[in-house]
Structure formats: C-alpha cells, structure tokens
Specification:
Blueprint (H helix, E strand, L loop, with lengths): L1 H19 L9 H40 L7 H29 L9 H24 L1 H5 L1 H28 L1
Length: 174
Amino acid sequence: MVSYFAGIFYLVRLFVYFRETAQPEFVESELAKKILQNQYKIMIKKLWNIITVPAFILMLVFGITMILMQPDLLRQNWFHIKLTLLLGLFAYHFWCYNTVKKISASTDNHLKKNSYCLRQLNEVATLLLFSIVFVVILKSNFIDNWKEIVSGLLGIFLLVFMIVKLVNSKKKKT
C-alpha cells in the first residue's frame, strides 16, 4: 500500500510539472520545453509501469486474500465504508491511467486541466488515504461517532485545499 500511494502521489505531481512546461513563465525556450516534456513523459511512463501498477495489483491481491481469509469482515459496517472509499481510490487510479495515456499519446504535449486543478487533484489521494486509515483505526467507533469524524475529516480536507490555494497564490506572485 505504501508503494502504491507513493507512486500515485508522485505521479500526479509529475502531471503538474508536465502541464507547467506548457506555460511560458516556467520554461525559458522551446528547446527547454521539448526536453522537459520528453523527460516527464519518460518519468511518468516508468513510474506508472514499474511502481504504481505493480503495487496496485499487489494491493488488490492482498486485499482480496484478506477478505477470503476473513469473510466476516464483509459483515462489519466499517468495512463497507472502507470498501466504498477504495472504490473512490480505484476511480482515481483510472483517472490517473487515462491521464497517463493522454500524455503518452499526446503530440502537442498539452493537458487540458491547468496546474492549479492538477494540484488540487493531487490532494485527492491524500484525502482518500487519511479517510481509509481513519476508518480502519476507528472501526466501530467510526459508526458510533460518524458525524464528528466526518466533520473532522471535512475540516482536514478543507484545510488541505486552502493550503494548496495559498501556496499557488504565493507562487503566482513570485
């Protein structure tokens, strides 16, 4: 799981860097832009194929094995919440997959989403990780105190997004 999240965190960060190469304020010349974009394409492809996808497959296999070895987990409400969050993680994984495909197939080396949007999307994996870990650690307490816990998680999410916005606004001023 750690390898998978490390891959996903860095992958979306590479999407941000790749996108910023299309902005004149980040790249001094067309040659530098072309060199950076080609390098980011290589890095994205290697990260996806060598770390992220194999770690995802292992995480999936171990998760299914855990369920097969402990089928009673499927009767516990907290586990249903965890599985729902994992479905969100899988959706995020496939968004990353589609973005990797777009970058690899791109001839104009352009992503439609701006770097700010990509920075916000970079935090989605962090928020999913926090949520999944909280659910697993708190288990039945999560069900009993779900309003307080969800409020706390939403507060954390809001704080993270505000920090990203603040960092981006300071970056634009420099």
